[in-house]
Amino acid sequence: METVPKPSRDVPPKKNRLQAKKKKPRRYWEEETSLTAAGASPGPPGNKKRNRELRHQRPKNTNIPKKSRFSRKPQLPKKPRELRNPEPQRSLSGAQDPFPGPAPIPVEVAQKFCRIDKSKKLPHSKSKTRSQLEVAEAEEQEISIKAARSELLLAEEPGFLEGEDGEDTAKIRQVDIVEAVDIASAAKHFDLNLRQFGPYRLNYSRTGRHLAFGGRRGHVATLDWVTKKLMCEINVMEAVRDIRFLHSEALFAVAQNRWLHIYDNQGIELHCIRRCDRVTRLEFLPFHFLLATASETGFLTYLDVSVGKIVAALNARAGRLDVMTKNPYNAVIHLGHSNGTVSLWSPAMKEPLAKILCHRGGVRAVAVDSTGTYMATSGLDHQLKIFDLRGTFQPLSARTLPQGAGHLVFSQRGLLAAGMGDVVNIWAGQGKASLPSLEQPYLTHRLSGHVHGLHFCPFEDVLGVGHTGGITSMLVPGAAEPNFDGLESNPYRSQKQRQEWEVKALLEKVPAELICLDPRALAEVDVISLEQEKKERIERLGYDPEAKAPFQPKPKQKGRSSTASLVKRKRKVMDEEHRDKVRQSLEQQPQKQEKKAKPTRARPSALDRFLR
């Protein structure tokens, strides 16, 4: 049997069921309206429409449930989004964040990562181009702020060496430094006694994990110098003049007595480049995949190792070339000559980009810091000079050395090391990209043989020295960058990561034609070449394809396309274009100079008409 539900308080009576169905449901905002209507003063008797609206807003049913899910408080009107006070952020526990929003970044820290010079105003260009430049600036500013914020994650800090009050740090020996540092750092100092195959030239890989060295009597070896694991060791049975790692530790080049040879990390000879003969010095440009060689015949040769072709062979016309280094900032090769000059070369030019007269005698060594700001040179006149490469090429400081420096090298943080006989001196500045002070050496170390090669290890406070007695690894606090980019130079990468990095680096290879003194000039428009190409194109085609087509009025109906009206419309457009040209020419003209004041005279002269 069906049972009839008992009527409750919320259910209306049976007789009012039709009224309840027809009744408009209550909304949560109607209560405010009813209160407002109840407390409002009655309007004039003639305003029937308003009274009708107020009566319609009154609730007919007084049976209100006890529990309502809506608040009975009148709802205030929402404020505009600009005037609302943002509510403080709260955590899951309900606690209020005392520092809401992202942490502020100092302007100086963000400026360090900014690559756009905002001192230069945007050029007057089209609105679309200008908006694109503004978007690029906004993205660059956001990226610099993110980079400055992520700098907190770089936990490592550069090392330093401080003496006690009045103590000279140059008197601190390597033995004292090894005893003071931890076990892992102390293991980085070692000596390899290889006197029977010396003197040695050495080179570290870009990641700073592997070391390659070659002796004058044919001994060539590569090893993981951190774990002391030998990768390969061969004897080429020929004099070795220089050795360099290529883009990775899997390949290295050896300048032997006759030709240039390429080996892999197992010691297997892969290539013999006979076009590069009698090579004395090697330099590798990692972003261009170019191997630069200097020979006894006076030729500077660029070899593209990605395709195995000679990009350029330049004759320096300065005799034997045995002093060479690269500028890490712009990939320009610096050559030292016997007449005391240093020439700057690019594979895109057959003549040197610049020549600098550095010494009265021949140049013995050249080195450029990592920022491309300073160049250090030493000559037969026993002078050690530091030059400014930012366009002036003027000497900033000089020092006379007792024996003269035969080898120079800069570290990642701007320390300058010089090899003088069997002594290595190191000078330090105030920090990275600062001028090294040549007044007092930072460290000094005496070796068991004459120095023949210097190279700072990347991302490690280590200086590798090749001499007649073998290889020495020195500890130099504060020489290298403490943090490395894991996507670019990761010393802990696996073989798979190295292969993926090689593919990415090949895709991002920079063409050799883009090597120049100022890399920022590549982002500017070459107006002269653009105009020349435009003139040649006009002469070849016989007309200007970019010229504006003459105005042709559209035909109209109802007799408005008569000859007179067409001529009138054409002339009107021509007059508007003429006005625009005149207005532009007036804006481009410089401000007129003030007229010279006429000399005051008692009486006017007939010659005054010639005064302007």
Automatic annotation (TrEMBL):
InterPro entries: BING4_C_dom, WD40/YVTN_repeat-like_dom_sf, WD40_repeat_dom_sf, WD40_rpt, WDR46/Utp7. Residues 573-584 have a biased composition (Basic and acidic residues). SMART domains: BING4CT, WD40. The keyword Nucleus applies. Keywords: Nucleus, Repeat, WD repeat. Residues 14-26, 47-59, 66-78 have a biased composition (Basic residues). Residues 441-519 form the BING4 C-terminal domain. WD repeats lie at residues 356-390. The keyword Ribosomal protein does not apply. One of its GO terms (biological process) is maturation of SSU-rRNA from tricistronic rRNA transcript (SSU-rRNA, 5.8S rRNA, LSU-rRNA). Coiled coil: none annotated. Residues 1-105, 539-612 are annotated as: Disordered. GO terms for cellular component: 90S preribosome; small-subunit processome. It is found in: Nucleus, Nucleolus. SUPFAM superfamilies: WD40 repeat-like. Transmembrane segments: none annotated. This is WD repeat-containing protein 46 isoform X1. It comes from Acinonyx jubatus.
